[in-house]
Amino acid sequence: MPAPIRLRELIRTIRTARTQAEEREMIQKECAAIRSSFREEDNTYRCRNVAKLLYMHMLGYPAHFGQLECLKLIASQKFTDKRIGYLGAMLLLDERQDVHLLMTNCIKNDLNHSTQYVQGLALCTLGCMGSSEMCRDLAGEVEKLLKTSNSYLRKKAALCAVHVIRKVPELMEMFLPATKNLLNEKNHGVLHTSVVLLTEMCERSPDMLAHFRKLVPQLVRILKNLIMSGYSPEHDVSGISDPFLQVRILRLLRILGRNDDDSSEAMNDILAQVATNTETSKNVGNAILYETVLTIMDIKSESGLRVLAINILGRFLLNNDKNIRYVALTSLLKTVQTDHNAVQRHRSTIVDCLKDLDVSIKRRAMELSFALVNGNNVRGMMKELLYFLDSCEPEFKADCASGIFLAAEKYAPSKRWHIDTIMRVLTTAGSYVRDDAVPNLIQLITNSVEMHAYTVQRLYKAILGDYSQQPLVQVASWCIGEYGDLLVSGQCEEEEPIQVTEDEVLDILESVLISNMSASVTRGYALTAIMKLSTRFTCTVNRIKKVVSIYGSSIDVELQQRAVEYNALFKKYDHMRPALLERMPVMEKVTTNGPAEIVQTNGETDTAVLETKPPPSGLQPANQANDLLDLLGGSDITPVIPTAPTSKPATAGGELLDLLGDLNLTGSPVSAPAPQIAQPPFLLDGLTTQPLFNDIAAGIPSITAYNKNGLKIDFTFERSNTNPSVTVITIQASNSTELEMTDFVFQAAVPKTFQLQLLSPSSSVIPAFNSGTITQVIKVLNPQKQQLRMRIKLTYNHKGSAMQDLAEVNNFPPQSWQ
Predict the structure, then answer these.
(1) What is the CATH number of the domain that holds 769?
(2) 611 DSSP 8-state letter
(3) Residue 255: pLDDT band by 50, 70, 90 thresholds?
(4) 258 in helix, strand or coil?
(5) Sheet containing 801-809: order of strands
(6) Residue 607, Cβ neighbours under 10 Å: how many?
(7) How far is CA 633 from CA 472, 628, 757, in A?
(8) Shared-domain flag, residues 577 and 439
(9) Residue 308's closest CA among 276, 263, 344, 341?
(10) Roughly what angle, to the nearest 10 degrees, separates helices 151-167 and 132-146?
(11) N or C terminus: fewer CB in 10 A for the chain?
(12) If DSSP codes are grouped into helix, strand and coil, which group holds residue 375?
């Protein structure tokens, strides 16, 4: 049989193919020749044939028939055969195929080979595609090579150990003695892989994390030597000494310093040195600075160091590279809650990013801009965001409009400014606003009695000849119907009044009715407005009757029904019409029971006591809290007030009754369900862009509320400067077992002398091995400063079983409630 063509000739031949069919024909012909050679057990050219097969595999053609040939090459004594054999195993085999187990003995023999390059091939292959069975069988050999003095083998053994730990975490302790001397190695390759190994072990085991925290000074010393060392051509990248090792060390320091004061203190100085001494003209330096910033923000660093980190991100915003600007915006968005004032210093640069051509940068800049809005800068920020709303792409308008509405409601300096801002949004992007924008604006206008004439005049001007923004037209129609007499009389004092006749007002509303752009809902608003004007206008009642009678035969059923009812009002009940169509009273926002309301003006927070108003007779709000009060009768228990709808329907309060159980409650019982009292908005705000509770009470110690079956619940506390009666409890749920806990639900109840609210949890799955936590915020209002007590209920699925447990928490520190 003639010798097969060489790999280089095959590549040259395939590249001459002009069509895919021609290339496929060449490949099939060569595969047939390779198969024939394999059947004849041709040992001479097996290596060449497998190499050609790997090239075809890289082109996307099937090459599975060469798997066993790879094993034969691995078993060969020639290094060139082993090299191609191991490469083929890494490309063609994985742990899903049983044939890979046949390699175990060969790899074991090669790990003990006298040639370091053969040992290196075996380590690379095991670290690439070794299954859990192979890792268990060969972990001992890897551990031996990890202790060898040969740096070439140690770096490969360290990476292989990382793969073994990922596949079989319980073998982690086997490698612990070998890691003691790894950081003393001078070779950068061994140092790099050692840091990767330590990082993997710390991330997977809290015990390892605590054990390796004593290495922080050594890591700091290595990092200091790197940034202070002179030029080294072997490790230099764009003038920086081994940036890859620096980044790895910074990541490991971030893990070791998280939630540990001593470790964080030990690395503060070196982080400041890295942040100030790293050259930023090249991307390499920016990568190191970014890792430094992440480390500073994640550990318990000093306030000055955090400001330095945010200033670095601010410099990133001025970089020409879009990726760096995007990374800076994303990082600032994560830190704006904890370091709000430091981020505020870069507000102008962030706002400039709204004009960027890249849509990803624009979106991040928009989100960050809304997070920076407060009572002091609301006018300037809204001006910039409204300008952005005018010019941005359609996919941004809905989110931008929603953010402006929320910010204006929270920080509006005056009612006129609030109304003008929302009208500007409706004029600019009315088609993109949320469904509740119309009723919310109507409620705002109704409650601003002194602004009625000004508002109706502005809205009348806004819709003259333009009905494209339907929400704006709906609000304008409602206001014209409600306050049309003020429009005609010209009583506006805020701006120059306009001269409008009754017929001109009706012309506008009739144009809305017949416009092709008007939706059915908008026509309903316009027809109702015309009907209301029959009691506010004196000269055009006959015209109004005619318009209403015309729509009695409309093909729109909703419009027809309205018109028929209004006609009946004219004909049969005309004596009742003025009373039925009189002005709407001031609307009150729907609130739930609570003693105080938080009113924010210009960024300041005041507490205003609300008047207690019992609900109208015959009207029972169908919400979980009231249902629960009815069920509990005279007990003085406060139910949990959720901020968002839960995924499961309430079961008539039964689960919460079980939760409350025999909790020993204080306070005198009442004989009837408690009347509804307005709920303070801070219990409904959720986690807003700028939290009210921004001063961590350093003197309040954290507690462990629950620790059983591998599930641990820790409570940390915050107090508010604006309302000392409010305590914010952050729960952190961790799982030390080997399997994750799913469908985790945390419930709580307190005596009725308290007000309690659970915000939404960060997740419903608690990762295993303490590799992550679920956080959830509880807000407690304690106006009487009584000792805090709580009953908690935990439900979750673990190891295929549904778990449930109750516990009572009575060990709250006095600082949390006094």
Answers:
(1) 2.60.40.1230
(2) P
(3) very high
(4) coil
(5) 637-638, 742-751, 790-798, 801-809
(6) 14
(7) 47, 9, 21
(8) yes
(9) 276
(10) 150
(11) N
(12) coil
Tell me the C-alpha distance between 734 and 770, whole Å.
6
Residue type, 569: L
pLDDT tens string 83-109:
999 998 888 887 776 777 788 888 999
8 Å CB contact between 66 and 105: no
Token readout for 640 is 């949990």
**pLDDT for res 451:** 84
Do 776 and 759 meet the contact criterion of CB atoms below 8 Å apart? Answer: yes
| Interatomic CA distance for residues 69 and 52, integer angstroms | 12
**What does the CA dihedral 207, 209, 211, 215 come to, rounded to 10 degrees?**
180
Is 417 inside a domain boundary? no
DSSP codes of every residue in 239-291: TEE-HHHHHHHHHHHHHHHTT-HHHHHHHHHHHHHHHHHS--SSHHHHHHHHH
Phi, psi angle pair for 536, to nearest 5°: -105, -25
Q: 239 is written with which tokens?
A: 């003038």
* Cα 94 from chain centroid (whole Å): 35
Compute the radius of gyration of the chain from its Cα atoms.
36
260-283 pLDDT per residue, tens: 888 889 988 999 988 888 887 888
Q: Is residue 560 part of a domain?
A: yes
CA dist 776 and 745 (Å) reads 10
- Residue 496 belongs to a domain: yes
Measured between alpha carbons, how far is 791 from 747 in angstroms, rounded to an integer?
8
Structure tokens at 283: 């991307």
pLDDT range class, residue 744, cuts 50, 70, 90: very high
Give the 3-state secondary structure of residue 492: coil
CA distance readout (Å), 482 to 24, 365, 453, 537: 77, 40, 11, 11
**What pLDDT score was predicted for residue 526?**
92
DSSP 609: E
Name the residue range of residue 783's domain.
703-816
Phi-psi region of 659 (alpha: psi -120 to 50; beta: other; left: phi over 0): alpha
**Token reading at 457:** 């005049």
DSSP H or E segment with residue 755: strand 755-758
- For residue 802, give the 3-state DSSP assignment: strand
Last residue of a domain, one of 557, 581, 605: 581
For residues 98 and 93, what is the distance between their CA atoms, to the nearest angstrom?
9
Cα 690 to Cα 38, 65, 310, 601: the distances in Å are: 70, 62, 18, 14
**Minimal CA–CA distance to 108: which of 72, 129, 134?**
134
Phi, psi of 505 (to 5 degrees): -65, -45
The closest of 505, 514, 554, 508 to 533, measured between CA atoms, is 505
Q: Which two tokens stand for residue 265?
A: 């203190």
Pick the last residue of a domain from 548, 581, 614: 581
Question: Tokens for 272?
Answer: 């400041």
**How many CB atoms neighbour CB 599 within 10 A?**
11
- Contact between 88 and 103 under an 8 Å Cβ cutoff? The reply is no
Quote the pTM value.
0.62
pLDDT, residue 493, reads 65
Number of domains in the chain: 2
Dihedral angle, C-alpha 414, 418, 421, 425, nearest 10 °: 170
Between 592 and 315, residue with greater pLDDT: 315
Query: Does any domain span residue 195?
Result: no
Task: Give the separation between CA 757 and CA 728, rounded to whole angstroms.
Answer: 10
Could you tell me the CA-to-CA distances from 181 to 5, 168, 195, 472, 570 in Å, in that order? 50, 23, 12, 72, 96
Q: How close are the terminal C-alpha atoms of the chain, in Å? A: 94
Q: Give CA–CA dist 353/816, Å, rounded.
A: 42
Q: Could you report the per-residue pLDDT of 353-369, keeping only the tens digit for each? A: 999 898 999 999 999 99
Are 364 and 329 contacting, i.e. CB atoms less than 8 angstroms apart?
yes
Q: List, in sequence order, every residue forming a beta bridge with 320; answer none if it has no partner.
A: none
**Mean pLDDT to the nearest integer, 443-465:** 86
Using DSSP, state whether 730 is helix, strand or coil.
Answer: strand
Cα 719-720-722 angle, rounded to 5 deg: 160
Q: What are phi and psi of 388, to 5 degrees?
A: -65, -40
